Every structure is written in structure tokens, then in C-alpha cells.
Amino acid sequence: MDETTHSQRGTAPAAPWTAPVAGGPLRGDVSLPGSKSLTNRELVLAALTDNPSTIRLPLHSRDSALMIAGLRALGVGIDEVAPADGAAPNPYGPDLRITPAPMHGDVRVDCGLAGTVMRFLPPLAALAVGPVTIDGDPYARKRPMHAIIRALVDLGVDVTDDGGGAMPFAFTGTGSVRGGRLSIDASASSQFVSGLLLSAPRFDEGLHLTHVGERLPSMPHIEMTVEALRARGVRVDEPSVGEWVVHSGPIAARDVTIEPDLSNAAPFAVAALVAGGTVRIRTWPTATTQVGADLETLLPLWGASVVRDGDDLVVDGGVGIRGGASVPGLELDLSRGGELAPALVALAALADGPSVVTGIGHLRGHETDRLAALAAEINRSGGAVQELDDGLRIEPAPLHGGPWAAYEDHRMATAGAIVGLVVDGVAVDDIGSTAKTLPQFPELWAELVATGTASSSPSSEG
After folding, report:
1. SS3 content of the chain, % helix, strand, coil (to 5)
2. What is the tens place of the pLDDT at every residue in 416-438?
3. Which of 79, 84, 122 is CA-nearest to residue 99?
């Protein structure tokens, strides 16, 4: 696999970041910024209303910045505002006020590596008037886009591309999209479904969308989209599994508060099992469509105690792998939430028995080919990981320090940090890639690891 990961973000590559080793059991207390998935869905919906909306506690990261820039380029007003009277300030950035406006073309939308931007904005931009070009980072041109391009064509949008079903592509919006019946294969990403559903209320005939592929990964993300639409007064019917009917009509303006990003909580929660001790994650929602909530049931499979304490979630890893705990190998189907796979595969690489993680074949089309990347980096560190058609087989093996490539992928970078808790000298080449969804990761991670006591020397193998 290509290990060249230096910046496609326009900055010179930084020196490798050596993951801090845990000196003892953790006593961590982590507050995370808002969900990327929720922030970018609410931005799109707010842009399609008839009146202003406010998004409180949004995520401020590269992915959300790209979404904001794309909407602003199309004519949507987005302003940073102070918290409402009596509301606690967001330590990670200001609230956002979104003011809809007639959308215009003559723009190039830069999607970076953000799947939500490249899949959510084209259907919305087709409602603008004038030419629009959709493009992104060099690697983003390898990410699956055929389903969205084909869908736009089937909906009457005149799309120009090179025939490869990928970025860059262009079209000239007429101010409306016909809508109606549409079939797509969303096997490569649930974002194809969400991207079409989000703009569907503004289509002339709404949208009757049917998924015709063999599988549909990450269903909770589609549930998140449907719930966000219904919360804004949109009628969405689900006649059968893989079928959605979005009725044409207005999208209500609404002030929303974004939940913390539970997928970004994964490395912090896993850290309790690796280093031992407890990690408290603040303001864990009692009900959510975020797939990160599955950590509550997944981590106990490895022996963690996971309990709610007031508004928080507390993960207790006991003595942890670092302290000699026996952590079993497992067979897991992560088709519901493949974005949790990098953190859990890193944990499995440190376990005592073999693990098989399936339901994640679609991760080959994420920010990088995550299956190949995880296998390459763990194996380079002394591990034994084999790629399967739909997942990975991880055999226990002693790990050692050395270079760890992030492949411009935030979750590959955090997987290296997890291994580095108990393996001295793991040097992540691009920790800055975490800015995609969690710019504060290096600081938050250092603060967490610093809570460990220095009562004994760390292990150097898994």
C-alpha cells in the first residue's frame, strides 16, 4: 500500500508524532466537540429552509469547514455567533447562524476528503442556478461517487465527468430537480442515501428512493438522516427495508444543539482497556442515532465495565492490557458502524487471542483503503493481520515501535495512538490528519495519558 501521506491540505509535512506511552492506569475525563455527522447534516438542512436556523455546539474541523465553505460559495449565509443568553459557551468554537438564500452556480466546491461533503452537497447544488464543479483532494478522486453521479443523471441533471464515476465532475443547475422514483446501489456507502434524502424535500416530486445493492452499510447513519428530516417537519415514509419516500415540501427552520461525537470517543474509551483505569466521557446522550453508542455494548465484550454516571459514560478497563489483563479475541460484525473498526482493530492487535472483524469491506473506499492500511501498519509493527473479502483477521503477536503511516486518515492516526499506549516508539507520520474531525486530538490524548500514574514501567509489546 502507498505510504505517502504528506499533506494534501496545502501545508508542509510535520515531524512524526511519537505516541505517548501510558505510565499507569488512567483517570481520564474527556469532553469532546460536536458530532461531524450531525453537524454536516444540520448545515445542509438549515441551508434548505426558508428562515434562519442556529446550530449550537457544532463541530469545528476540516470536514465541517469544507461544508461551510461549499454552502457559502453557493450563496448560503453562515455566520459565527455568540451563545444564546444563559447558554454555556462552546470551548471548541462559536455557534453558527445559517441564513438561506437563493443558491447560485459559477462555483467550484472543494470536498477535501470529506465523504459527507462530496455526497451531500451535489444534490443540494443541483438546486442552484448555474454551473457547479465538484472536486476534492487527490485521494478523494479515488473514493466511490458513481452512485451520486448516476442518481443526478437519472433525476434529470446534465452531469459531465470522465466516465469513471468519480470526482471531478460538473453540472449546470437549473434551480430545480425533478425527483420522483429512483433506484441506487449504495453498497459502497450509506452517504449516497443520506445525500439524496437530505435535499429530497426540495425536489419537485420529492423522492421515492430504493436501494438495490447486496448490502447497505452503516444503517444508523441513514436513521440519523431520517430523524433529522422528521425533526424539521418533513414527511418520510419507509415502506420496506432499503426504501424511503420523502415527500416534497418545506423544511422547517430549527435551532439545534449538536451532541458530542461518539465515534471520536472510540480511541479514548478503548484507552481504558489498553492502559487500564477509567475514562469518563462527558455528556453522553441517553438516546442517539450515532453509531458510536455501540461502544456501550462492544467494549464489555473485551472485559470493560461500561456504566452511565449522570450525564457521562464511564469506561473501566481494570488493570488493562498494560497491567497484564487477559483480553480475549473476538468475532465481530461491524456492518452497523465501520467507523469504529480502526480503534477496535488496534485493540484486537493487542489482545491475547485471534479476532475476526467483518462487515467492513466498504472501508476500502473511505479516506484511504482502511483494511489495507490497518493490515500494513500493524504488520509493520510486528503483528499478523490478514485481509478478508469483508474484513480482517488479527492474530496475536508481539508489537514493536517504529513508523506508523496515517494515510491522510484521521482514524488511522488515532489507531496508532492506541497501539502507542503500550508500545514504545510508535511514530505517527501525520497526526495533523485528525483535524478532519477532531483538531484537538493530540492535546486531548496527551492530557488523558498524563492522568496515568508512573507506578510501573510500561509494556513494550501487545
Report:
1. 30, 20, 45
2. 999 999 999 999 999 999 999 99
3. 79
pTM: 0.92
How crowded is residue 162: how many other Cβ atoms within 10 Å of its Cβ? 10
Q: pLDDT by residue (tens digit) across 87-125?
A: 777 889 999 999 999 999 999 999 999 999 999 999 999
Question: What's the grid cell of residue 272?
Answer: 481504558
> Of the residues 42, 259, 339, 408, which is catalytic?
339
Per the annotation, the verdict on 443 as an active-site residue is no
Confirm if 244 and 212 have CB atoms less than 8 A apart.
Answer: no
The CATH class of 17-32+261-450 is alpha beta
Q: Are 287 and 242 in contact (CB under 8 A)?
A: no
Helix (H, G, I), strand (E, B) or coil at 143: coil
- CATH number of 36-246: 3.30.930.10, 3.65.10.10, 2.40.50.140, 1.10.390.10? 3.65.10.10
- Containing 388, the helix (H) or strand (E) segment is strand 384-388
Distance CA 163, CA 250 (A): 35
C-alpha cell at 23: 505510565
